[in-house]
Amino acid sequence: MIGSGLNSQTFFKTDLTTWEIGPYHSSLPGPMRLKLKLDGEIVVKCEVETGFLHRGLEKASELHGWPSLVVYADHLDPEVAVFGELVTCLAVEEISGITAPPRAQVIRLLLAELARISGHLAFMVRMAKAVGSETVTHYVLRDREKILDLFELVTGARFSLNFLRFGGVRSDVTDGFIERVLEVCELIRVRMKEYNDIFTFNYSFLQRSSGVAPISKDCVRFCGMSGPNARAAGVAFDVRKDAPYLGYSNLDFIAPLGRGEGGVLGDVHDRFLIRLREINESMEILKQVVERIPDGPFLHAPVGNDYKVPAGEAYVRIESSRGLLGCHVVSDGKLKPGRVQYRVPSLANLMAVPLITPGVRVEDLPVVLASLDLGIAEADR
What we know:
Blueprint: H1 8-12, E1 17-21, E2 33-39, E3 42-49, H2 57-61, H3 68-74, H4 81-96, H5 102-130, H6 134-155, E4 164-165, E5 168-169, H7 177-200, H8 203-209, H9 217-223, H10 227-232, H11 239-242, H12 268-290, E6 312-319, E7 324-331, E8 339-343, H13 345-356, H14 365-371, H15 376-379
Antiparallel strand pairs: 1-2, 2-3, 4-5, 6-7, 7-8
């Protein structure tokens, strides 16, 4: 009963509460801490703290010979390792003035698009876990294993590939690889309908994703965001289109943009749908590439431990599954790199978290974080 000296507005008035989540929590995409101010269940302010996984990868890569640079780049983003290898090799090749043979470039492209599909499938797994859909988690992991089988067939490894080399790749594709690629593409094409039926247009998922935490074009520009998150907000930028490499300019594909199908352009649902459509585009790219893979060598020349890169510097950017991935390499003409720096997309995505979370319900925070496809390993490199 409300006392005679209090009115209802005074009685129900509450102060803001402070929460801290992390650095290790099942709802987080990795070791990080969120400092929240809540008004009931609504997020009023969110601060992000990272650095709990710092590995000193850039500095460590400067302490060893040039061939070891590929090994360190392989661990930049362990989930999609080939992108780190690719951008590093392209930067070193630009300084050295060498070009990978056409066959090597096609093999690189095949692995890159397979990695893009694998990364987006892993994104779907995290989204399904965030909303408690264990069925979809198992379905998608089952199909992602097919992609990892292809990596193992060619490179002998499933995650840390260590397959690219300066001037090409370590070895040629194995027998049956091309046929397996086409089979996997057809399998995933069929599975995509299942994903849509049981998850994408599921009422519960629509309620948790439609209109939630939208990203505006101004936010994209302010944070320097790129990749699927930026395209979901309507920003038409894709390195494969705007600065083609590996022969992407000769391929017929589109970079999907957000349509606001969840009610607001750039919301969680748009970010989810963008990645589904990119999986379809990657499969179309793979089908085009396997039909025109050229004959010839797969490596420009073997690289030994005494390999030296001419003095100079280069900056190269590619489109990873998370966004624009850049690599800046400086060589002073010695056996070791002078400086290695990476521009990773997850750092810009992390910058957006404090801007888009106010107004979100605290129970939807895991969904919002999962929708940004954050790679804490590459952000804390």
